[in-house]
Amino acid sequence: MRRQYAILAALIAVLTASLPAARPSAAQDWFKTGTGLGIAKARLAVPDTAARSSFTQPFPKTFHDVLWADLEYSGILDLVSPSFYPLQSPGQPSELNATAWAAAPANAYMVAYGNITMDGSGIAFSGYLSDVHNPQAPPVIQKIYRGAAADNDARRMAHQFADDIIAYLGGGQTGIAQTQITYVSERGGNKEVWMMDYDGANQHELTHLKSISLTPRWSPDATRIAFTCYVSYRGVTSAQICIYSTVSNRLIAFPRFRGTNSSPAWSPDGSQIAFMSSQNGDPEIYVIGSDGARLHRITFAAGVNTSPVWNPRTGRQMVFVSDRGGIPVLYLSDSDGSNVQKLDLPDMGYVVDPAWSPNGQLLAFSWRRPSGNYDIYVMDIVSRQLVELTKDEARNERPSWAPDGRHIVFESTRTGTRQIWSMLADGSQPRQLTFQGQNESPNWSPK
Amino acid sequence: MAYAATIRPDERLKRFVVTSMVLHALLALGVGVSTYFSQSGENWGGPGGAVTVGLAGSVPAIPLPQPEVVSPNRVVDESKGLFKTEPKPQPKTDLDATPIKKFEKEKPPKKYVTRPSKTLENPTPPPPNAVPYGGGGAPTVPVSSFTMGTTGATAAGLAVGGASGGDFASRFASYVTAVQQRISREWLQSSVDPNLTWAPRLTVTFDILRDGTVTNVQLIQSSNNRSLDTSAIRAVQSASPLLPLPSAYSGSRVSVEFYFDYRR
Questions:
Q1: What pLDDT is stored for residue A25 in this prediction?
Q2: What is the pLDDT of residues A119-155, one digit of tens each?
Q3: Chain B (94-113) residues lying within 8 Å, Cβ to Cβ, of chain A
Q4: Percent of chain A with pLDDT over 70
Q5: Measuring CA to CA, which residue among A355, A291, A350, A290 is closest to residue A326?
């Protein structure tokens, strides 16, 4: 009897010992980390770009300035001030004195550097990102960026390098340095749709309708812009929905309706457009396929219903502006128009221009409280917490989120004229993007 | 009778008393009325005043880095200690030697008697450096404060000093930091129960594939709060895809043990 037990025990022991060996994952690499009381931003040093050939135009300086601005505006990095840098700027990994950068006063965690050359075919930038606390390891980014010998190409290459750095240090999050902003400008005499890089460079006119164009909105795939245009329909000039293709650089055919039609909004999958239309008398919200078919009405309430936005994460909810209760305020509903509820705010005043953040959690809007002018607020949809992002005498209106959810572009009259500004989504780092004429109604491209 | 000639006390005193009482009543009424009307001003901070609007940092759903917090030095933490005050060893009884009691039919049930409970004293005093069981922890570093944020050398040091299988954390310290930063930013604490101010550390494990996809997310240590557990798992899931694994790394996947400390 005892012997049988001993044999059984030995058998179990052998089986248990052989079990981990049978699983291949047992030899797998793993690491342990975590998060708690806030996370410090990564300290990044960006020394001057080394010029390795003679330049007729100041491309190395343009490149470095654009790169610095992109990284500083990302909101997730802490750039080391250039006055703390060691005297020698590296141009390639062999010239990097890692200990000097890691030590005080620079105390850098990473260094982004590189060299730029120019020849007959154009300019080439070799970019590196090195961990100075781990000097034996190869640079985590080593890439060559090429372009024509033009200012725009130098800027584009710097944006690409900045996005690569942000993608690495941000853990795979895409940067916004290559995104664009569309807006309405009347600097040419008429209100036309314009487009610019996210930092205000490369501003150019898209439409030439010689009438009034308003509220441009990017499609989710960033190939089309829907906007409100004033065109002739059955002999009457009225507000209609127009769609402009940024691929073919021309207008795409879209059906026209009776009455006033305005404020288009794309569904997150790009298959539908919601807009305000008074084709049956009262201004109500309609939804139509982006190919122009399957028109249907979703709001049924007296008064004006306008400015719809979809929840970009789920596509199942919508926020719109309605004055059914007396003054224009925000209402939340399902995307088929059912289940309408008012978004209550703790004060009076007009609430307009809803903009839903890309992660679906926050709603930005402009609100004119009795105590002041229009200002931009952000509301957490779930907890209804409010944050006021702008506070000054002027009007700050029409917010639009960047695809990373960390930046907001808006229009402001704080300089005396109506201009486009952008800021981090906590209200810090505001910067003016347009300076000429009057500019309004910005919309950030989704990619 | 001098006084009888000048006044008649009964009649005159009564008139004065009545007059005085009427005057006093009028005075009291006047004071009351004036106090009542002087109160009817506007109150400070009443309705129609300011709206309570939080600070920008208080909406945690904006995926920006949260401000760094310096935590005070603690002598002890919640982890189990080095020294354990063992319970007194019980005298062993030989089970086989205990005779089975006979069934006693006729005996009436014992009466229940209450006695004052005894306080048990431990005769052996604990050593002078003893920490109560469960109340101790790893010895603290001899500095006044330390920060939980990790950059630069601390990042590598923390990752290595923590634990890792293979040499992944030391070879690719910047990758570890990038993963930590990304998941910290994706951790949106607005969905956590607002009454919760503190929770025990919760730990989630997951695998990162070659292209950065996160798979096999598992909660291995709960915080005993469902909303917090959900928010942590969502943080990991919404961070997918993470950064692709470093090209110098030959393996096809890396496992991660990621902890979340919640304080409000």
A1: 42
A2: 888 999 999 999 998 888 889 899 999 999 999 999 9
A3: none
A4: 94
A5: A350
Chain A, window 390-419: residues with a beta carbon less than 8 angstroms from a chain B beta carbon: 404-406
ipTM over 0.85: no
Report the CATH number of the A180-444 domain.
Answer: 2.120.10.30
- Which residue ranges make up each domain of chain A? 42-169, 180-444
Decide if A29 and B255 are in contact by the 8 Å CB cutoff. Answer: yes
Q: What is the pLDDT of residue B6?
A: 60
The pLDDT score that the predictor gives to residue A239 is 95
Tell me which residue in A30, A102, A361 faces B152 most closely, judged by beta carbons. Answer: A102
- The structure's pTM equals 0.72
Check if the beta carbon of residue A83 is closer than 8 Å to that of residue A216: no
List, run by run, the mean pLDDT of 10-residue segments along chain B (264 residues): 55 83 94 74 46 51 66 56 69 71 72 74 69 56 37 35 63 87 84 84 93 92 90 89 87 90 84
Structure tokens at B133: 């069981």
- The three-state secondary structure class of A294 is coil
What pLDDT was estimated at residue B46?
43
Q: Which residue of B152, B173, B255 is in closest CB contact with A30?
A: B255
Inform me whether the pLDDT recorded for A446 exceeds 90: yes
pLDDT at position B123 is: 67
Residue B206 burial (C-beta neighbours within 10 Å; 0-12, 13-18, 19+): buried
The verdict on a CB contact (< 8 Å) between A33 and B243 is no
CATH (residue range A42-169): 3.40.50.10070
Domains contained in chain B, CATH given: 149-264 (3.30.1150)
Q: Work out the burial of residue B56: count CB atoms within 10 Å of its CB; fewer than 13 is exposed, 13-18 middle, 19 or more buried.
A: middle
CA A187 vs CA A160, A228, A244, A439, B186: distances in Å? 30, 18, 20, 8, 41
How far is it between the farthest Cα atoms of chain B? 132
Say which of A25, A39, A172 has its CB closest to residue B212: A172
